[in-house]
Amino acid sequence: SQQGEEDPQALSIQEGENATMNCSYKTSINNLQWYRQNSGRGLVHLILIRSNEREKHSGRLRVTLDTSKKSSSLLITASRAADTASYFCATDDSGGSNYKLTFGKGTLLTVNP
Amino acid sequence: DTAVSQTPKYLVTQMGNDKSIKCEQNLGHDTMYWYKQDSKKFLKIMFSYNNKELIINETVPNRFSPKSPDKAHLNLHINSLELGDSAVYFCASSQHSGYTFGSGTRLTVV
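Output (structure tokens, whole complex):
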């Protein structure tokens, strides 16, 4: 069964604006990860946040995790046209062994120049 | 270049045929995976291997048989291909944290 659910399914913004994507999940997790997929390409790992962390930053990316609400958000600040891609959250619910990631359906982000 | 490389990138074949997709990683990772991405972009794990041993087989039909000759390789063989097998198949590897994905194999069964 599907674990992560991203919201919104699609998001269109202007360059320079911030983009926020949300992810909800159902079971206990060890960590939650965000990935980017450009059209027709593979997935690129963006950031990992562990279940005992609440917030993490990487460049223009900010990820939050609320385990009580079983939700996470990805904020991209000062967006660029090159940020146009699909963004997926994925949960490691394999007890930390990382043998299985369960992906959400993704958010398609379009950044208009 | 350090990477996860999979071949072929595109594969068009007729129903009933048998085909293989190869995957190699030179990252020294212990764990490798096959994921299937359907037409709605939903990614679902198929198999995971750790040090050549099968760890997860996520209710994949027996027509799909992974083979890991060593921990740097995880190949996927598919027998008697069906229309519903059309998808993008991603190989990936990991070591402790985030995954590194290959660029995918787009399989089209006609």
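Chain B has no helices and eleven strands.
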